[in-house]
Design a protein that fits this description.
Blueprint lengths: L4 H15 L8 H7 L5 H13 L3 E4 L5 E4 L8 H9 L23 H17 L2 H9 L5 H4 L4
Antiparallel strand pairs: 1-2
Helix pairs in contact: 1-3, 1-6, 2-3
């Protein structure tokens, strides 16, 4: 996609956690079982990073696990990607050039710019809580939608 595989896994884990009851901590093992092809230690690292970025809350001990941080359910996918990947997401040149702007455009800039803006708008409109509701209601199963290999 447009971001790293780690971000893919983080977003899938985030939607899964958001699809669970709001007041019940979700164990990393449960997320790993749902996202069955992601190694558990790697997923735990991702969940801890999400907690460190204020996206999840982490609780230790018996009954511990992860909950969505306040306000995340109402957040858009773009905000989550920016927090996971880093703030400049979407600002870069499609060719990776450092000084690509309207005044100093790369060969693809004028064609890519309106498409990029539409993609960023679409990502902003995809709300974590709405996606989680669709998963919870059985309209989507992230496990079945994952790419093989």
């Amino acid at each position: 996609m447009l971001w790293s595989k780690t971000c893919d896994y983080a977003l899938q884990a985030l939607v899964y956690v958001a699809s669970q009851p709001e007041d019940v901590c979700v164990r990393s093992q449960d997320v790993a079982a749902y996202l069955y092809d992601v190694p558990s230690p790697y997923l735990l690292k991702i969940l801890k990073e999400l907690a460190g970025k204020g996206i999840l809350q982490s609780f230790k001990g018996r009954g511990g696990g992860f909950l969505l941080a306040p306000g995340i359910r109402e957040s858009g996918l773009l905000e989550m990607v920016k927090r996971i990947e880093g703030e400049p997401f979407g600002d870069g040149c499609v060719l990776g050039l450092a000084n690509c702007a309207d005044e100093t455009a790369c060969p693809a800039h004028h064609a890519w710019s309106p498409i990029k803006n539409k993609v960023l708008e679409l990502l902003s409109e995809q709300i974590i809580g709405h996606m989680a509701e669709a998963v919870r209601d059985g309209r989507y199963d992230l496990r079945l939608l994952r790419k093989a290999g």
